[in-house]
Amino acid sequence: MRSDIEIAQSTQLRPIREIAARLGVKEDQLEPYGHYKAKLPLSLIQADKIRDKKLILVSAISPTPAGEGKTTISIGLSEGLNRIGKQSTVVLREPSLGPVFGIKGGATGGGHAQVVPMEDINLHFTGDFSAIEKANNLLAALIDNNIQSQSTSLGLDPRTVHWKRVMDMNDRALRHIIVGLGGTASGVPRETGFDITAASEIMAILCLAEDFHDLKQRIGNIFVGFTYDKKPVFARDLKAEGAMAALLKDAIKPNLVQTLEGNPAIIHGGPFANIAQGTNSVLATKMGLSLSEYVVTEAGFGFDLGAEKFLDIKCVSAGIQPSAAVLVATIRALKYHGGVTLSALNQPDAAAVERGLENLEKHVENMRKFNVCPVVAINHFASDSEEEVAAIKARCKALGVKAAVARVHAGGGEGGEELARMVSEVAEACTCEFKPLYDWNWEVERKIETIAREIYGAAAIDYTPQARADLKKISDLNLEHLPVCIAKTQKSLSDNPKLLGRPENFVVTVREIEIAAGAGFIIPITGNIMRMPGLPAQPAAEKINIDDEGKITGLF
Fold this sequence. Notes:
It contains 19 helices and 23 strands. By secondary structure, the chain is of the alpha/beta class. It folds into three domains: 4-126 and 251-429, Rossmann fold (3-Layer(aba) Sandwich); 128-247, Domain 2, N(10)-formyltetrahydrofolate synthetase; 444-526, Roll (Formyltetrahydrofolate synthetase, domain 3). The longest helix has 21 residues, at 128-148. The radius of gyration is 23 Å and the shape is globular.
């Protein structure tokens, strides 16, 4: 079979004005970026048109090196819905350059279920990440300038500043650095570092903002640190919000592209789910719901991470709710959770699938805790046996959950029709009223404990002395009402990446708690979570190339 990039490059793309016309968007409303990409103005979002539309959330079992394929399923499901007569738009996150050049490769779907132009989307796209990076680093520069200043200093104590610079690349050498060296003219020396752009609070703010006013207000609310006399300092105290929002004037607008079958796709924002909220922007989701009957969207990593944050943070903040939730699983991943090594995953082993199904079963239980209607999508691989598929379907039947085999990687929309029919039936028949897992006004420890016990399955929660000090700081700043966005490994339901399947009797340890007052949440950090990833021994960048005619190869 041809590679993803070969399939994408062989597809005849339609002019972006034709894709917009399918959504009822006029050509003079578009802001084109070349022939096949465009920005959509926020004026197209209309609250009265969102009612009664169907929002479909796609999540997955706990990720494995075998792969699950949420993006591929999301795109294929949207293609399938359009094929059965439902007007559907897939709404996704933008890929980060770090994983593209690192270990993951491209992030625009796979096989015959992709969004295009895949090279552009995977690389610089429309410059949104660059704008977010510049806005973030402008605040960093203003902070250091104020520390240095004699005349306008706020008395900011540099030891209390946790705001870091960001870059959209995996680079472990930048995790911990010292700035301000070189003498008094070069600033005040202090320890700091870089995060990857997807982990920036500006990314989180962009993805939760409702409009320009809300964007600017959220930026102003960013907590910077304390003065020497213990007074809190926010970005608004540095008069930073106006210039930072100005840098985001185009980045705030969702991006319109297309699928391989010429259906609309909106791509906007890209926070990771293990260190941030892991979902595309509120504006992109509402844009899709304003312009189409169905919106298919994904949340990063497993249901315990991106989906929990989608439901408890994004849905509550934006006043939206899903009509159905799709849980993606592969037979290969279930066998991995069942104890099979990577090298043996292609060998039929229904018993291992049975063992691995305990992970799927826990995620289904979690879906029902939010009162959403679940569907299981079995992302098909050529090595899957009928006995293995039957084992999944039998378990799903016992759980009272509909399950469909999705052959979208090989068959595109046609391979997603069975799943599309099932999802549309569930979405249109579902009478469940979504309910969040917790009340934002609960005390912080109760919110953390509820997620850890109910969603992860933890027996207890432990707090380091640093985390206890952070809880007091949150209380002193009157920020206890904020929801929690837990940073946790994606590889396990627990905070230990080695515990596969459905671990039990484990303790979740909260190391520290960061404050993202601008985004509107706090971030309890568990385990050994890195906000600046490193490159692997053999990074994907080694295989990426461009020929004399400008044709890119090796993205995937």
